[in-house]
Task: structure prediction
Amino acid sequence: MPRNLKEEVVFTAIMAGLMVFVMTAYNVTLAQGFSNGLVMAILSGYPLGLFVAIILDLLVVGPIAKRLAFKYIINDYMRKRVVLIGITISVLMVLGMVTCMSLFGIAVEGELSGSHVLATYGHTWIFNLIVALPLQLIIVGPIARGVLGKMQRATANTESAAAMNEED
Result:
C-alpha cells in the first residue's frame, strides 16, 4: 500500500497506465476488430481514457473502495495478512472502475442514446469485468505492487543510511 503522496502517484500511474492501455486495446478491438487503423484507434483513445481513469481513481473510486474495505470487509484476520487487504481493495477498485469506465466508454462511442442503452451498458460492463479482474489480480496489480515495494525498500535503505550517518 502506498504510504505517501509520491508513492500514491507512482502506484496510480503504473496501475492506471497499464489497465487503461490494455482495456482500451481490448475494447477497441472488440468494437472494430483487427483492422488497419487498430493501433491508431487504441493510441488515440488512450490519453483521454487515462486522464479520466486517474481522476476517478484518485478522487472517486479509490477513496470509496478503501472506505468500504476498511469499514465493512477487512477484519482482524485480514489485517495480519497484508496481501488480503491488497486483494480486497483491488477487487473493489476493479468493480468501481469497470462501472465508471464502461459508462465513459459507451458515452465516448455515442451509445448513450437509444432504447438499448441499459443492454449496451450491461454487456459492456460484464465484458470489461471479465477481462479487468484477472488482468488486475494476476498481471497489473503484482507489477505495480512490485515497483512500489522496490520504491519503499529504496526509501527505507536511504533513510537508514542517513540515520547511521547522523549517529557518526
Notes: Residues 5-160 form one domain.
